Amino acid sequence: MYQVKINDNNPIAFAEKDQQLTPLNTEDTIDLIHIANHEYHALVNGQSAKISIKKINREEKTLTATVNGKPCTIKVTDKMDHLLKNLGLENALVQKMNELKAPMPGLVLEVLVKIGDAVTKGDALLVLEAMKMENIIKSAGDGVVKDIKVNTKDAVDKNQVLITFG
User: Fold this and answer.
1) Would you say 91 and 149 are in contact if contact means Cβ atoms under 8 Å apart?
2) CA–CA dist 143, 41 (Å, integer)
3) What 3 state SS string does the chain have?
4) Among 2, 55, 98, 157, which is disulfide-ready with 64 (CB 3.0 to 4.6 Å)?
5) Nearest to residue 136, comparing CAs of 115, 117, 113?
6) What angle do CA 146, 122, 88 make, to 5 degrees?
7) Which residue ranges of the chain lie beneath pLDDT 70?
C-alpha cells in the first residue's frame, strides 16, 4: 500500500497491482498520463490537472512540484513507512549526530549556528575556506548544537571537532 499526500490535504491510499497503482477508495478515480520529461496530466475525480515535477528527494520520499502552476509538496509513503510508524519507530532512520569534524584542513570563515540551535540534515553549519575555496559545511543529520569548538578565523586540521550536538 502507498499513500500520497499533497501539501496538507488528506492522503490518498493506493494499492499496487500489475505494476500500476489504483486508489483503494472506490469513490476516487485517477488517470495519469506522462506527457514529457517530468510533465504529467492527471484527471482526478473528473478534475483536470497539469503536474510538473521540479525536484525529487528520494531520502525523504517527497516531490516538489507545481499542480496547475501552483507550487506544492507531494509526500509518498509505502508499507514499510506504515509498519515503522505502527511499531513506534518512524524516526528510526533519522540520523542523529554527536559531533561535526572538519572534512579538510582550512580556515573557519563563518559559524552559521549558535548553541541551542536545532538543526536538520542539510542545514548549513559553517563556512570553511580550504585551498582558496569557500566550502559550506552542512549537517549530516538531526541534532541540537551543544557546543561550538571553533571561532571565526580559526585554522583547523582535518578531523578536528568543530561542533558537538546533544
Assistant:
1) no
2) 40
3) CEEEEECCCCCEEEEEECCEEEECCCCCCEEEEEEECCEEEEEECCEEEEEEEEEEECCCCEEEEEECCEEEEEEEECHHHHHHHHCCCCCCCCCECCEEECCCCEEEEEECCCCCCEECCCCEEEEEEECCEEEEEECCCEEEEEEECCCCCCEECCCCEEEEEC
4) 55
5) 113
6) 75
7) 19-20, 26, 28, 89-96
Identify any residues that bridge with 72 across adjacent strands, giving them in sequence order: 65
pLDDT at position 89: 66
Residues 6+ apart with CB under 8 A from 158: 102, 103, 104, 105
- Strand pairing partners for 164? 99, 147
Give residue 92's pLDDT: 58
Task: Sketch out the chain's domains with CATH numbers.
Answer: 2-86 (no CATH), 99-165 (2.40.50.100)
pLDDT value of residue 10 = 80
